[in-house]
Write a structure and sequence with these properties.
By secondary structure, the chain is α+β, with helices and mostly antiparallel strands. It folds into three domains: about 5-85, Elongation Factor Tu (Ef-tu), domain 3 (Beta Barrel); about 90-235, Threonyl-tRNA Synthetase, Chain A, domain 2 (2-Layer Sandwich); about 270-380, Diaminopimelate Epimerase, Chain A, domain 1. The chain has nine helices and 20 strands. It has helices at about 5-10, 85-110, 135-150, 160-165, 225-245, 255-285, 305-315, 340-350, 370-380; strands at about 5, 15-25, 30-35, 35, 50, 55-65, 65-70, 80-85, 115-120, 125-130, 155-160, 180-185, 190, 205-215, 220-225, 295, 320-325, 330-335, 355-360, 365-370. The strands form five sheets. Strands 2-3-7-6-5-8 form a six-stranded antiparallel beta barrel. The protein has a five-stranded mixed sheet with strand order 16-17-18-20-19, sandwiched between helices. A hairpin with a 2-residue loop joins strand 17 and strand 18 (about 330-335). Helix 2 (about 85-110) packs across helix 3 and helix 6 packs parallel to helix 7 (about 305-315). The chain is elongated, with a radius of gyration of 34 Å. The protein binds zinc ion (ZN). Zinc ion (ZN) binds next to helix 2. Zinc ion (ZN) binds near residues 101, 183 and 197.
Length: about 375
C-alpha cells in the first residue's frame, strides 16, 4: 500500500520514493510508488501532475486501491526517484476545494441544503446544491465565506474512531464504513473527504460566487477561489478595459454603452434594409421592358432586396428576370419567370454557371461561382 504523503502534508511539493511497479497501458506507463505526494483524482478534484525523475506525470488515478502515476516514459522498478509536483496547480485546486467546504457548510447550516455535486476544472468550479437559492442568499453566503477566510483558522484533517465519528454531525456523500477521513473547518463544516486542503482558511485568499442557475431541482453555483479568482479578475478587467476604451465609456458603464450601441446598430440595419429595398425598386423602375431575359447586377443587395427587385421588374420581362449581388466568382442570385419553369432549369443553370440553387417553378435563388461575363453570355 502506497503511503499517502498528502494526507499528512498537503504542502509537500517534492519527495523521494521507490518505484514498486511500472506497467505499460495503451502506450503509457502506470507507475506505482511506495510513497507519494501526488493526489489521485477523486471527490470532484483532478489528479496531480508533475515529474518523477525525468518522466512527466500527466495524471494520477487510484484504481483498485492503488495509486497510479501516468507517464509517457518508463521508470525502473526498484529505483529511487525524486518526485516534484506541479504545485502551483495543486495549490489553486486546494484553494477552490477548501473554499467549497466553507460554502457548502454555510449553505447547509443556513438553508439546510446539501452539496450533491462538485467539479473542479482548470477554469471553472461548480457546486450543485439540492435546493433553490436566490441571488441574495448567495451574496450572504459569499460574505460569510470571506469572513471565514479573514479569521484565518486552522483546518483539521484526521481519521476518527468509529465512536468519535458517530458523535459528529459531518457531511458525507456516501456512507463510509472504513478509513473515514474527516476534514473540519471549525465553525463552518465537518465533511468526509480524501482530498488535500489548505492548512488555514486564510490560504484560500478569496471566495467569489460568480453565477448560478437552476439545476435538477436545486442550483448549480459557479465559484472561484484564490489564484483562480485573481486570474479571472485579471482577464475580466482586461476585457472591460478594452471595451471601455473602444466605446469611450467609463468601465462601470460599459453595459449601458453596449446597449446603446446595439440599439443604434439595429436602427442602422433597419435603415439599410429600407435603402436596399428603395434601390431595388429604383433599378426595377429604370429597366426597359423586354420579351427576352432581364438582368440586374447590384453588388450590395441582400437576399430580400434581390427578391424585391425581380418581383418588381417581372411584369416588364417575357423571359427570365434575374438579379445578382456580389462579385465575380461569388454571386448570389434570384430569378423569376412567368414563362420558363425555373425549377426544371435550375440544374442547367447550376451546371453552366458553377453554382447551386433551388426554389419553385416561378422563382429560384442560390449562389454562383461564375463571372459576370459568363452569366451575361449564358442568359442574354
Ligand atoms: Zn475536501
Amino acid at each position: 500500500m502506497t503511503e499517502k504523503i498528502y494526507y499528512t502534508d498537503a504542502f509537500c511539493k517534492a519527495f523521494d520514493a521507490r518505484v514498486l511497479a511500472c506497467e505499460e497501458i495503451n502506450g503509457h506507463f502506470a507507475i506505482r510508488l511506495d510513497r507519494t505526494a501526488f493526489f489521485p483524482e477523486g471527490g470532484g478534484q483532478f489528479g496531480d501532475s508533475g515529474m518523477l525523475g525525468d518522466a512527466e506525470v500527466f495524471d494520477t488515478q487510484e484504481k483498485d486501491g492503488e495509486i497510479r502515476h501516468y507517464t509517457r516514459t518508463p521508470l525502473t522498478v526498484g529505483d529511487t526517484v525524486h518526485g516534484v509536483l506541479d504545485f502551483a496547480k495543486r495549490f489553486r485546486r486546494m484553494q477552490c476545494h477548501s473554499g467549497e467546504h466553507i460554502v457548502s457548510g454555510l449553505i447547509h447550516s443556513l438553508y439546510g441544503f446539501d452539496n450533491v455535486g462538485f467539479h473542479l476544472g482548470e477554469e471553472d468550479v461548480t457546486i450543485d446544491i439540492s435546493g433553490v437559492l436566490t441571488d441574495a442568499d448567495l451574496r450572504r453566503v459569499e460574505e460569510l465565506a470571506n469572513e471565514a477566510i479573514a479569521k484565518d483558522f486552522s483546518v483539521r484533517a484526521w481519521f476518527p474512531s468509529a465512536k468519535e465519528a458517530a458523535a459528529l454531525p459531518y457531511r458525507a456523500k456516501l456512507a463510509i464504513t472504513e478509513g473515514l477521513r474527516l476534514v473540519e473547518f471549525p465553525g463552518y463544516d465537518i465533511c468526509a473527504c480524501c482530498a488535500p486542503h489548505v492548512n488555514t482558511s486564510g490560504q484560500i485568499g478569496v471566495i467569489k460566487l460568480l453565477d448560478f442557475a437552476n439545476y435538477k431541482g436545486g442550483v448549480r453555483i459557479h465559484m472561484l477561489c484564490g489564484e483562480m479568482a485573481r486570474g479571472d479578475y485579471h482577464s475580466r478587467y482586461t476585457a472591460v478595459k478594452k471595451i471601455s476604451e473602444l466605446l469611450s465609456a467609463k468601465q462601470g458603464e460599459v453595459a449601458e454603452a453596449v446597449e446603446r450601441l446595439k440599439g443604434e446598430n439595429e436602427a442602422h440595419i433597419r435603415e439599410l434594409g429600407a435603402l436596399k429595398k428603395a434601390l431595388a425598386e429604383t433599378l426595377a423602375a429604370s429597366a426597359a421592358p423586354t420579351e427576352g431575359n432581364l438582368l440586374f447586377f447590384a453588388p450590395l443587395l441582400d437576399a430580400v432586396s434581390l427578391r424585391t427587385l425581380v418581383n418588381t421588374a417581372l411584369p416588364k420581362c417575357g423571359g427570365i428576370c434575374a438579379a445578382f449581388s456580389g462579385s465575380d466568382g461569388a454571386y448570389n442570385f434570384c430569378m423569376a419567370s412567368k414563362t420558363v419553369n425555373l425549377k426544371q432549369k435550375a440544374k442547367e443553370i447550376s451546371e453552366t454557371l458553377h453554382g447551386r440553387g433551388g426554389g419553385s417553378p416561378e422563382m429560384i435563388s442560390g449562389n454562383l461561382a461564375a463571372s459576370r461575363a459568363e452569366i451575361e453570355s449564358y442568359l442574354q
